[in-house]
Amino acid sequence: MLKSALGIVLSFLIISHTSLLQAAEASGNPTARASTVAKKHAVKRRVKPKKSAAKVASRHTTGSAARKHARAVPATSLNPREKLVKKVVVSHGRRKVVYQRVAQPVIPVVPPIETAGDLAGLNMTRDSLALASNVALVMDPSNSHVLFQKNANIALPIASITKLMTGMVVIESHQDMNEVIQVTDDDVDRLRFSSSRLRVGSRLPRSKMLHIALMSSENRAASALGRNYPGGIQAFVAAMNAKAKELGMTSTHYVDSTGLSSENVASARDLAKLLLAASRYPILCQYTTDTRYVVEPGGRTLQYANSNRLVNNPDWEIGIQKTGFINEAGHCLVMQANIDGRSVVMIFLDSKGKYSRLADAKRIRKWLEKNPPAQSVATTARRVEG
User: Which value, to the nearest 10 degrees, does the dihedral of the CA atoms of residues 55, 59, 62, 64 take?
Assistant: First the structure.
């Protein structure tokens, strides 16, 4: 009974649906007729209407790209410290692309090295010329008039500026400058393990050792000079400190002839006195300002260059100079130069960056050129609290 009733209802629905389709065909609407035919076939065959060619092509393209991407990038999860490296290998005569996990090197974060000046808070001092050096002094040597100063009375490590005093003690000792001295194992730097082009066993006259020590900061040469002083290196260091006292360098102290030790300290004012005293020796002026020099220790030819690039610049007239660097001292420069026919002493200590001390010298030069001697006044940097 129930089945008969359901059959009657289903028949009625089919008849009604067929009538509607026929009515749509009779209306003359081609789109409706096409849709009607498609739906009729779909009902008979119980299949979905065919998709358009565009949709089929899109599905095919998308699937192809996805499969290609899946082949190109393996579905593997990477550790943040790993990366995939693509390699092409040949297997059974066929080229094949494979991917390998490679651990990326862990680069340790190295904190910036603080110099002695930074630790003392000198980097908080600001000046009108925005110098990169923590310490600066500009002076007129004719009357000792200070034109510019910044932390000039504070003693700091001076690195290879030490070698100016080394040179002066060697000259004043009146030792034979033609005597050949030898580099030994005692001259090897075991404090900082710095490199040297002079091998152990190298032999050179004292004058040539002094030349490359002053011009290129050759540490083994400076060490050999001090070690071959009458009484040895201890007597040499004692002579350095005695000379500093004689010159009135009250904040200065030396412990070696090279400047590798951070215990070699002086203030900018003291170094101005040292520079003026050294400038009275023509040999020291020549050795510190030569641009290049060739030596032949043990039959080998070594060509040295000046550690100060300004000596190669024709725009600069430099009478005497010396550079220096160790971590505790930063980059240092002392020199006497003629600017617009005017002799000027410049001292820069604890500068940040290899070339910043040279840039500071150029800033001072421009400032002096804009301020003739009659108008030049002493300028003192101020400390910024905070």
Answer: -130
